[in-house]
Design brief:
150 residues; 7 strands
Amino acid sequence: MGELRLNELNAETISAANRLTLKPGQEDFLEPETYTHAEQQLDPAGSWPRVILDDDEVVGYIMGAFDEDAPEEFLRAALWRVNVSAKAQGRGVGRFAVAAFADEARKRGYSRATVVWAPGDAGPGAFFESVGFRVIGQTPFGENLGALDL
């Protein structure tokens, strides 16, 4: 693995991000139902889409949002997506992306970051817990609500 870095999502990287191939079964966990229903509340000015590069190859995508006025606390510094290509999984790419999001949240004055995920064997729960998120509740749709104290 080369040097990991983040880049803003742009015309050059969006195609590569859209072509990321996950491991079988992971597609079922890409967008929790809660986020589908809350998406219209997302402030576009506060969205934080980034690609993760290994040298010059796009190996992942992260989407976060920052909105101090969001009506729900869990939407204020929210991690919406972390997608890592199947071939790059297990190499620290996701951990790097979450750490970068947490750093950005700290810089913006937040003391907690949140994430929502659907439970399931192929789901991201074990990953989120391994990077420090702890389950603090469930959404009305039965998904786990995780928090990372910053």
